[in-house]
Design a protein that fits this description.
alpha/beta; Nucleotidyltransferase, domain 5; five-stranded mixed β-sheet
Length: about 170
Amino acid sequence: MIVRATKKLLNTSGIKPVKNLNESNVLLPGEWYAGLVSTGRQGKMLIHFLHSSTKLSILCPGKSLNKALPVFPERLERLLRRLGYSRLIFQFQVHTKPEIYATNSRSLLAHMNQMKYAIEYRVALAEQDEDINYSEIEDLLSDMLLSSGGPGKYEKPKDILYGIVD
């Protein structure tokens, strides 16, 4: 599994940035981009993982990749089950040893920033940390319209998954 983390996340996690300019053109397993998102509460952050090919989003509470990566496979499995694509779980190869690199795609970072606002809004609606429903936010993000492929072309992450299965 390849994870491309933002500089801020790498610094917070205590991981030295490593550049790898090779991009994966394979739909699955693909690469995961990761970045920090503020919860609006002092000292509380969450990590947003965005899949490069399908634009699926996984949210893990915390601010360190070292703590988020062990719970990441379970969160992905639960999302795929909720969306009805459990047969794709093994194709994402999330149980392989993670290779962590610095980000190299401005367009994917732009998607992450666009989604960040939606995540921060949903998190702000929760009165306490315990009230944050990460699964609900992931489901909403899977139905978010995002640009893909070229000018005027938009797709939802769950529609991309449908295209893989069909």
